[in-house]
Q: What sequence folds into this?
């Protein structure tokens, strides 16, 4: 290989290496959360897909049992242990 060819090859490889570095930096910038958000925030198809996947993940999760009013009970139901507790509970229900 002559010196000219070697020099031309070296120059071409240097340019390619610089392109790779430049493209790698561009990809790194595009992968940032803020940049990705800016790219997709106004795209209704992507918004709908993300929302659909989120709702699907919520529907497949184990939901807590609901009381008859439609709300999840926060504490276990108090069950009277004896007649005195039952009377107190009945009085409380009747008064309210």
A:
């Amino acid at each position: 290989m002559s010196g000219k060819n070697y020099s031309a090859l070296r120059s071409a490889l240097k340019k390619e290496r610089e392109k790779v570095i430049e493209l790698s930096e561009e990809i790194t910038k595009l992968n940032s959360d803020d940049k990705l958000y800016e790219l997709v925030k106004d795209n209704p198809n992507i918004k709908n897909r993300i929302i659909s996947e989120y709702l699907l993940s919520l529907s497949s999760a184990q939901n807590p049992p609901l009381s008859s009013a439609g709300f999840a009970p926060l504490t276990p139901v108090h069950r009277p242990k004896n007649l005195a507790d039952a009377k107190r509970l009945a009085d409380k229900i009747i008064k309210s």
Q: What stands out?
A: Residues 3-30 form the longest helix (28 residues).
